[in-house]
């Protein structure tokens, strides 16, 4: 039974992962587009700064209601539709108010953030954040109903729409402006540049929101104050957790312009850092895909007597495959770096640090099941607050001296501490027998192989590539021998007698 559940988890992780990886990969293609088309790294820094703000605001506007929906929909399955309806009402109402405020007060906010000449940026992104927050609930509903295919299709629709309109505004329109300006000069301004990135985002969000409407109307819109109060009591501590967590991911990009004296240098450095950060997002894709499948999984299997064994296995294999991704990324960085323009390669040194911070983040998420299942979500909030304090302190003290390297190490330290705190407190409240010995062996092996790779620097790139490939084979051989025998892998086992 436990094996079957793990197989289902793996299947859904794969589906979510394919959409996430494909979507993120396609978004990667926008990075070289931006670096080539926009006037310089400072322009890309503007994009990174404002999207960091939107990520923070999105967490605030969802205020933990996704997890709250999962918790109460599983806890009260007989009224799951009503739970769904009340979460939509709550998030929809607050999102609408936020959108109106952003439009009305766009200019003062733009003045505060240093974008006085473009208040429409604030208005557009305010509307985008509000609609994305609203859409997060029907997306959560699809995960609850175990409909990863539709979830993935809508996510890909979002990505393709965004890419299509980015290409249209940043590539097609400039070309048409040269060849036949009469076709587009009634709506296109060749000097607007970065603004078209945000316009494309607005269009994408509207399209996906419309596509989600059929699932929105499956809810039972019967307002239940008592039920909503219970959901909010559970979810609001997760808001603190979410704010602290997203600050750990975006704070560097938010405060960068305020920590370096030269505004243009700050935007340029931020652009370089953000572009290199994109390369590390492979790890984030995996952790995100795992999260999409894992969160409904833990709530659904909570009452199973073998649930703790399943949780332990999930943790072990998450770490193993995270380490495998880490090695693949650092060994073949000479290939991955071409995702971004060579003018941004100065920031490549942050990638190993960022990758490990993503692993710690993923482990922390896996460990978070104990306070979610025991309704002790305030612990998660406190852990994230501690992590945020670490992030803020390291950034403020060291960014003026070490620039974005300080931000990378801040993320590493933050998630490492949060991971340790969650583990030790979790073992007190909900003990799980994680296979620490096996996890430690895999971790030591991965770190050892990475250190060896740092000394591989022959004059022959192909030889370097082959040696590093052999190092990766060593890790995979250990995996196949001890935890993933080839004769148990679908499609492969039929060829092995």
From TrEMBL:
Spans through the membrane: 21-38, 50-72, 84-109, 121-144, 156-177, 197-217, 238-260, 272-294, 314-333, 345-367, 379-402, 408-426, 438-456, 462-480
Q: What UniProt keywords are attached to this protein's entry?
A: Cell membrane, Membrane, Transmembrane, Transmembrane helix
Could you tell me which Pfam families the record lists for this protein?
Answer: Polysacc_synt (PF01943)
Quote the cellular component terms of the Gene Ontology held in the record.
plasma membrane
Q: Where in the cell is it found?
A: Cell membrane
Topology within the bilayer: Multi-pass membrane protein
Q: Which PANTHER family match?
A: O-ANTIGEN TRANSPORTER-RELATED, PST FAMILY PREDICTED COLANIC ACID TRANSPORTER
Record-given protein name: Uncharacterized protein
Phylogenetic placement of the source organism: unclassified sequences, metagenomes, ecological metagenomes
């Amino acid at each position: 039974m436990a094996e079957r559940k793990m197989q289902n988890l793996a299947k859904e992780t794969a589906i979510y992962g394919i959409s996430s990886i494909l979507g993120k990969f396609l978004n990667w293609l926008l990075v070289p587009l931006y670096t080539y088309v926009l006037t310089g790294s400072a322009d890309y820094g503007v994009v990174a700064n404002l999207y960091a703000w939107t990520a923070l605001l999105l967490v605030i506007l969802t205020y933990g209601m996704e997890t709250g929906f999962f918790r109460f929909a599983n806890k009260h399955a007989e009224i799951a539709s009503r739970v769904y309806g009340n979460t939509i009402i709550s998030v929809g109402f607050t999102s609408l108010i936020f959108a109106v405020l952003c439009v009305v007060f766009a200019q003062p906010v733009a003045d505060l953030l240093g974008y006085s000449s473009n208040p429409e940026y604030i208005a557009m992104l305010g509307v985008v954040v509000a609609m994305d927050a609203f859409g997060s609930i029907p997306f959560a509903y699809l995960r609850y109903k175990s409909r990863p295919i539709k979830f993935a299709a809508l996510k890909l629709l979002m990505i393709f729409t965004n890419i299509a309109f980015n290409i249209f505004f940043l590539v097609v329109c400039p070309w048409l402006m040269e060849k036949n300006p009469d076709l587009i000069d009634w709506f296109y301004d060749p000097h607007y540049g970065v603004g078209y990135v945000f316009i494309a985002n607005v269009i994408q969000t509207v399209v996906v929101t419309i596509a989600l409407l059929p699932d929105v109307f499956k809810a039972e819109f019967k307002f239940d104050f008592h039920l909503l109060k219970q959901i909010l009591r559970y979810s609001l501590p997760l808001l603190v957790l979410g704010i602290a967590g997203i600050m750990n991911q975006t704070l560097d990009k938010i405060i960068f312009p305020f920590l370096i004296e030269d505004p243009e240098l700050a935007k340029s450095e931020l652009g370089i850092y953000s572009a290199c950060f994109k390369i590390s997002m492979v790890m984030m894709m995996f952790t995100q895909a795992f999260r999409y499948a894992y969160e409904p999984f833990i709530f659904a299997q909570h009452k199973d007597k073998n649930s703790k064994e399943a949780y332990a296995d999930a943790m072990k294999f998450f770490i193993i495959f995270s380490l495998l991704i880490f090695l693949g990324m650092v060994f073949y960085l000479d290939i991955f770096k071409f995702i971004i323009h060579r003018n941004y390669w100065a920031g490549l040194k942050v990638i190993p640090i960022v990758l490990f911070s993503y692993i710690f983040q993923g482990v922390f998420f896996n460990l978070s099941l104990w306070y979610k299942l025991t309704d002790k979500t305030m612990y998660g909030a406190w852990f994230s607050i501690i992590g945020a304090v670490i992030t803020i302190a390291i950034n403020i003290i060291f960014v003026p001296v070490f620039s974005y390297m300080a931000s990378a190490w801040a993320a590493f330290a933050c998630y490492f501490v949060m991971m340790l705190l969650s583990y030790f407190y979790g073992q007190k409240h909900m003990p799980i027998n994680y296979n620490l010995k096996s996890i430690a062996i895999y971790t030591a092996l991965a770190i050892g192989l990475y250190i060896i790779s740092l000394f591989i620097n022959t004059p022959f790139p192909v030889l370097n590539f082959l040696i590093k490939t052999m190092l990766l084979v060593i890790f995979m051989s250990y995996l196949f021998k001890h935890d993933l025998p080839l004769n148990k892998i679908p499609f492969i086992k039929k060829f092995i007698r």
